[in-house]
Amino acid sequence: xxxxxxxxxxxxxxxxxxxxxxxxxxxxxxxxxxxxxxxxxxxxxxxxxxxxxxxxxxxxxxxxxxxxxxxxxxxxxxxxxxxxxxxxxxxxxxxxxxxxxxxxxxxxxxxxxxxxxxxxxxxxxxxxxxxxxxxxxxxxxxxxxxxxxxxxxxxxxxxxxxxxxxxxxxxxxxxxxxxxxxxxxxxxxxxxxxxxxxxxxxxxxxxxxxxxxxxxxxxxxxxxxxxxxxxxxxxxxxxxxxxxxxxxxxxxxxxxxxxxxxxxxxxxxxxxxxxxx
Length: 277
Ligand code: PEP
Ligand code: MN
Known about the structure:
Elements: E1 17-19, E2 22-24, E3 29-33, H1 40-53, E4 57-59, H2 77-90, E5 94-97, H3 104-107, E6 113-116, H4 124-132, E7 137-140, H5 147-159, E8 165-169, H6 187-194, E9 199-201, H7 203-207, H8 210-222, E10 227-231, H9 249-268
The structure holds phosphoenolpyruvate and manganese (II) ion (MN).
């Protein structure tokens, strides 16, 4: 990938990013929380629960890019204020999406990590704008994008002067309809061959099915992903967005109790040289 002047593994050792004492790329990052911020109670209750279960960061959308213009679009500034309250209560850093280049500078005052959603992966004005600030950026893979297109979008951010880019595999569109998208697990080792940037996995939007979230989370960790981003809601039945795919706090805690020993086991393994290299 000759166009990668800054994102390529050839030019730099692996990137690690410090966020409030947590080092992305060096330890497993588990970002959990609701699809969208709906109320202070919903967000704070969920934040406390995911923190107790071992999450390292809180997610929650204040700006929701919805398929239909009539669907709930997010609380905007009020949502960001609620996220700030949840952070004050739990200490969890905030990951939240920005969808408009004009909002980047003020959303960055609330966000510890700015999320670029799949639908905006190639919104080049937005990429340039987040590239101009120093907040870490979580760049989701476009649902129709190749690895090369995705890494070139990371290159847009890096080339504006922001070195703090985290990639997020969130599934791509295939002919399969049983799942919401198809999780491309091979993207994890493939990206690690090509780039020094950390890569995390979204098992929620990639599958859209509760029963598949745990196995795909474990598979992502086993494939050396640097982290996960998982939707959790204190009362999924009442969720205003993506209700069918949100874990309850109890389901999330159970999943964390399986992820933690798997990660410890993997970290203890002595690296065996790959015969196929
Ligand atoms: C999200 O994480 O809130 C989201 C909308 O995901 P995606 O952009 O991957 O669809
Ligand atoms: Mn969602």
